[in-house]
Amino acid sequence: MMQHRDEILGTYRRGRKKKYIMIAGGFFLVLLLAIFFTTLGTTDTDIGAVTGSIWRTLTAGGEAVDKQDKIIVLLRLPRMAMAIVAGIGLSVSGAAMQAVTRNPLVSPFTIGISNASAFGASLSIVFGIGFFGGSSFGTVFNAFLWALGCMGIVSLISARAGMSPSTIVLTGIALNYFFSACTSTIEFFASEHKLAEVVQWAFGSLNGSQWEEVFVMAVVVVFCTAGMLWYARDLNVIAGGDDEVARTLGIHPERIRLLVCAEAALATAAVISFTGVIGFVGLAGPHIARLLIGSDHRYLLPFSAVMGAFLMLVADTIGRLILAPVMIPVGIVISFLGVPIFINLILVQRKGEGV
After folding, report:
1. What is the dihedral sign for C-alpha 124, 126, 128, 133?
2. CATH of the domain at 228
3. Residue-by-residue DSSP string for 61-87
4. Please, what is the angle between helix 165-189 and helix 77-101, to 10°?
């Protein structure tokens, strides 16, 4: 009996160690890819030049001196950092939302955040309505506020109805259509120039990424990701059974659902307010991670971060290079890239299960 228990514990520890290695190795691979992708562009360079530019900039007090250093440190590296942070925020938020709603088809955008932010951005771009209206900062700020406002409405309605998973999803879908209609109405009355700006924002792009934007977004994403990881064990219980089972274990599913949804919404709003709508990462990243590392949210959430960052880096690099010097927005590329990968992994899993 004791020997059998020791074997089980040994197997468990080996499995846990393997998952930790996968997560750490995944983050290390993402960093290597980011450095490598920095060398690619209309004018290719090498890794030595990238590391040299970083070192010269750091030793010069953060000031890029020559032209090559400015291109690498002020243009390419912020773009890579933005891709990593955005991928982490969207993918972890998607995994958490799927847990609290017990629905694998849910992502942060299911509850209307993307269309609400697009509506806020449209108001600022077309009519100059909102804080700092008409400026680029105003567009970011209003997109962020409307995304949070949408989450607030979903929370209020869901709380009145008992904060059940179905209520959250159905309310979010209704608001999705509502804000989509509002945005379409604004586009109908917009001038040709303003309409082009709205459409360009909605595509989702990392063009013009700056270190200040990366820092602001990273602070919000790290804070919210840490909050969602704090509830990883609770998410395992909520995702695996009904609310009554969770309550018998001392977990308050309604409160956890509200807090996790709020953190996921805040992280998503911080990302899309700077990048525009990039929707597929929050759905594909968690699913790919789940197929590779399992459903335990203690490991699924950090590995979802790895997969989200990986998808964003690859999609953005393809968008930059495939029709260079024309840059295809990452929001478009991520859908073309993610859908076949996603479908293939589902088919592989189903075949493995003998279905």
Report:
1. positive
2. 1.10.3470.10
3. TS---SHHHHIIIIIIHHHHHHHHHHH
4. 140
Residue 232 covered by a domain: yes
Q: Which two tokens stand for residue 97?
A: 């939302």
- 126-184 tens-digit pLDDT: 887 766 555 667 788 888 888 888 888 888 887 787 767 778 888 888 888 898 898 88
Decide if 103 is inside a domain.
yes
Using DSSP's 3-state secondary structure scheme, residue 131 falls into coil
Per the domain annotation, does 331 fall within a domain?
A: yes
Residues 6+ apart with CB under 8 A from 1: none
**How many domains are there within the chain?**
1
Neighbours of 185 (CB within 10 A): 12
Q: Which domain holds residue 156?
A: 82-348
Assigned domain for 192 exists: yes
- What type of residue is 264? A
Alpha helices by DSSP H, listed for 191-230, are 192-203, 211-230
